[in-house]
Design brief:
Elements (H helix, E strand, L loop, with lengths): L1 H4 L10 H10 L1 H21 L12 H29 L1 H7 L1 H13 L3 H29 L5 H25 L4 H6 L2 H9 L6 H6 L3 H12 L8 H28 L3 H4 L2 H19 L2 H14 L6 H26 L1 H27 L12 H15 L5 H8 L5 H29 L2 H22 L11
Membrane topology: Multi-pass membrane protein
GO molecular function, one term: sugar transmembrane transporter activity
Protein name: Major facilitator superfamily (MFS) profile domain-containing protein
Amino acid sequence: MLLNIFKSGIFQWQYRRQLLVSLSATLITFCHGIALGWLSPMLPKLLSPQETPLTFSIDVNEASWLGAVISIGGISGNFSYSYLMNRFGRKVSIYALAVPHTCIWFLFYFAQSIEWLYVARVCAGLTGGGMFVVLPIFIGEIADNSIRGRLCSFFTLTMNTGIMVGFVVSSHIAYHVIPCAVVGLPLLYVFLATRYPEPPQQLIRWKREEEAEKSLRFYRRCDGPNVSKEAERAYQKELDEMRLAIQQQNKDSDDNGLSMSDFLTKRSLKALATGLVLMIANIFTGTFAFNNYMSNIFDAVHTQLDPNTNTIIIGAVQILGTLASIYLVDRYGRKILLIVSCAGSGIGTSAFGLYAFYAEEEKADLSAFSAWLPVTLMAFIIFIANVGVISVTMVVLVEILPQKIRAVATSFCLGCLSFFAFTSLKTFPLMMFHLGLAATMWFCGVVSVVCLFYVVVCLEETKGRSMYD
């Protein structure tokens, strides 16, 4: 059975290069995940004058800023990498992602004050903001329609794997050893990026026809000596469709340019509204803030297990949720996964809020449940969110936006995502402190219900949709 899995779907011979290139490109998301996961176990240490591994400690307000400044870098990364990608192509942008990420580990290692950590988190935001713009579009362009959803989901899988690794190393490895161990990964990522070509769509836009043909042959494995007639026909058909679509796009751009009226059509407005709702669901259902403040959350509900151990368990559950999404997204579609995910997130956060209410407000004796119930509820929330809201959001965003406005609208939506992330990370610890964990969780539950209503009523299924529609 296991052997059959590796002979089907994305593991089929004709998709092998698309899979390997997607994994190579998403190595940077794995690295980024390590930088994200680093914060949660490290934050309680930095807050304690006795346990801090540095020459200084921080207070709650500085901790909230340390969590939030990543989104300032994220907003800058969204727009700067969008410009870089449209001006210089996908490959240059992919190379450039390694620069701010490498700076993170040097700043962590040599940190002399909280400002060094702030700058490191801004660099993490630049990497993350750029990744969310560049990689879904890059993978969407090189991927066959039948496997695009699964390949785009590797973006989330590698990031969640990195987050779990970040949880582990930050909990169990000395502070100054971590940067030394991780800093080589972005260099490996840059080397791997030299091994695959620019997507054919970009080369056609640059009128480099011969290179575009070679690029498409590379990604469709039609460049060998024994290409079947059927594969050659499929390749030629796809190349012709690609040329026609891009020529029409260029003609429309030359005739009209990109104007405000392109964003005000019924289809564009609905797509933008859907994109914004998906960004809200991605952030305010709580999972992003949970990942950054996981150890603090478990500490607040007085779990009997070590908070950092719970955090590592949750990191593993994230990976399982993303694997489930990869298996399901091209089989059952995007909409059903988002429905299940929003509904499950609402139920899970409401239940966790109820437990937190009795743990914090009522001072009830929960010793019979504290060893397993908090981590079980959080595992359910994280798993169900990664099945849909986290993994599928970027797939749907790329597919639902009209081609003419896709690049600009994607940057706008991801800029909003970074702003929402900043708001969430800045307010989450303050809400926990002033309103309590229960009220904070119930707020996330309300957001999940609102997003569920929109997905059920307004979202169109995008499974199998062409990138040129």
